[in-house]
Design goal:
This is ATPase. InterPro entries: ATPase_PP-loop_MJ1638, Ni-pincer_cofactor_biosynth, Rossmann-like_a/b/a_fold. It comes from Thermococcus paralvinellae. By secondary structure, the protein is an alpha/beta fold. The chain has a single domain, classed as Rossmann fold (3-Layer(aba) Sandwich). It has 11 helices and 6 strands.
Length: 259
């Protein structure tokens, strides 16, 4: 499931940062969760085996059925956590994605006025991915708080371990790939097949009508490349996809009235 980082200095440093960050939330989570998360990092650092028997601890995962959130779900289940994947059902999602999420036992929630908020962003020529992500995470955290679940995990590929786990309001936010210093290639290996394509059908529709969004998308890809989350080959495929002039399948998601 997980590979030991070996002599990779940068990843080892990030993992040590993760251990420091874990200590800061030690009193916010159960002893079982603390020990199991620490064991995961030590396994990644030293190949140190640990007891993966199920523990009485629920973790909510913000689930998109993509490689990063799928890898997050699989790792946590492998480590013995009771994982609840929560998917925010969005209008641009294809049936195949929803069926895939159901196969993992996903719980579905919604965001009120989602299209109205995103359409306002598009009308201003503003990036939509960050806004969409923040609304999704808020909806997932709301679900966790309603159910009394303390840990909310995501598949965010951050470049540092110091903010991979932290207290956010009433929940502990766990960016698991960052916590374990995983990169995109590793999450794909764990999750399975993956299509190197930037953005959902709604983003493609928006970028077709507001090309400035392609510039923002390329900047995001380059940030991930500089951070080491993706490599040059992945970055090339994503950027060429962003620059493609083909009309997206999801163009009808945004009517003239909406934008």
């Amino acid at each position: 499931m997980l590979k030991v980082v070996g002599d990779d200095f940068i990843k080892r440093y990030r993992l040590l940062q993760s251990l420091e960050a874990l200590e800061k939330v030690r009193e916010e989570i159960s002893k079982q969760s603390y020990r199991r998360l620490k064991a995961l990092v030590e396994y990644r650092l030293f190949g140190k085996g640990f007891n993966r028997a199920p523990i009485d601890e629920k973790v909510v995962v913000a689930f998109s059925a993509g490689s990063d959130s799928t890898a997050t779900l699989k790792i946590l289940r492998w480590a013995g956590f009771e994982v609840i994947p929560v998917m925010v059902e969005l209008p641009q999602m294809e049936e195949s994605i929803l069926w895939n999420a159901q196969s993992y036992g996903a719980v579905f929630v919604e965001i009120p006025n989602y299209m109205e908020i995103i359409s306002e962003q598009i009308e201003k020529g503003a990036p939509i991915c960050g806004k969409c992500h923040s609304m999704i995470m808020d909806a997932v955290k709301d679900y966790a708080m309603r159910k009394g679940i303390k840990i909310v995990a995501s598949g965010d590929l951050l470049s540092v371990g110091s903010i991979s786990i932290y207290l956010q309001g009433d929940v502990v936010k766990l960016n698991l790939p960052a916590f374990l210093a995983l990169d995109k290639r590793e999450t794909i290996d764990i999750a399975g097949e993956y299509s190197f394509e930037f953005g959902c059908s709604l983003w493609k529709s928006a970028a077709h009508q507001s090309p400035i969004l392609k510039k923002f998308a390329i900047q995001r890809v380059l940030r991930e490349l500089r951070a080491g989350a993706i490599d040059k080959d992945i970055a090339k495929k994503l950027i060429f996809g962003i620059l493609a002039k083909n009309n997206p399948k999801g163009l009808n998601l945004l009517s003239k009235k909406e934008v």
